[in-house]
């Protein structure tokens, strides 16, 4: 006998067609590689060699924080990624054994060497740079290379110069005392260095900050936000910042501690047009690396409060909702159906659900009763975030029902935005 859960899973698999060739970047979706497998490269580091991008990251498929592999993926377009041999795998009896934690791999790897970008790398050893602890490392390469790391029990943040063969740290060039920073990246724009980092709050996201200076040795400006502080960096933590023309790409992780391998990638344009780096929270976007440009897709919005409500669902008012209204008390008997959603009938379209979840834990909502979409906590009723889902819409009018057939509470739904792209 099929249980209801098995039925839902079977229906879910039927609904989601496996497409591994993609054209757009959709932050927060389950990203697959060119073989259709979920990309396991958390805490990313990107290296460009010739026309090829290499993405190194932590393989968390085992849903454990312990070291299983530094994976390596290659792409020529930053969208289609194909997995290569692992760059580094556990070596028992060393500091990179399967019972150690290896996080935020960055290449050129400081502790391992290889002849080809993906490696595999020869492990040469680990030690504390200049005899002080180092955590959550980043790497920045200018004319020289620098190690960026949290030190002194995560209290002080340090930038240290590497020697000419990138084997060891030679001196601390800058130290931000008591800064409690981690997950750092540095981008240089117009001869100004921007240090981008999060604060320390475990797996939970916090408002990531930037600091600027005309020299890597500082002095650094006081910290400022790269996104509205109450969004907690759109529920993500910085991992790497890749220069893109006069802007950059913010590459972050949306950690899911109870299911680490399902942590999503949050990549957004990081735009300097206001004079300082600010995340552009695009649901769907594309990048032309050679031209140094990005394009944010525009979609069609449908307000939840214009849908038809059933069961316990009620209309909520609030100044942060689009149109001042949203639909609450969804799930556990409440649902809303949005009609006349225009589809293109081309086999799959991205839809962003704008929602608010004031709980301290994640919620989720069904769509068309069988597809389940996760809804991370937004930190408050006044903070609206979006999560993507890909659906097959027929050409012309479609009806979409949210939060039916679920006993748990869904988040409050503000609106949906339907994109042409699949
Ligand atoms: C990804 O690969 C597919 C198949 O080769 C191609 O059609 C698509 O344009 C590629 N995406 C990008 C962004 O280049
Ligand atoms: C790294 O450099 C420091 C400072 O110069 C030195 O004390 C240490 O022995 C070096 N470590 C290795 C493994 O070469
Ligand atoms: C959906 O969310 C509820 C909490 O509202 C949670 O208990 C449940 O495990 C979630 N379901 C899945 C499949 O993640």
Automatic annotation (TrEMBL):
Range of residues in the leader sequence: 1-21
Gene3D superfamilies: Galactose-binding domain-like, Glycosyl hydrolase domain, family 43
Superkingdom, taxonomy of origin: Eukaryota
Keywords (A to Z) from UniProt: Glycosidase, Hydrolase, Signal
Hydrolase among keywords: yes
Transmembrane spans: none
Any one GO BP annotation for this protein: carbohydrate metabolic process
GO molecular function: hydrolase activity, hydrolyzing O-glycosyl compounds
Transmembrane as UniProt keyword: no
Family stated for the protein in its record: Belongs to the glycosyl hydrolase 43 family.
Name by which UniProt lists this protein: CBM6 domain-containing protein
Organism: Phellinidium pouzarii
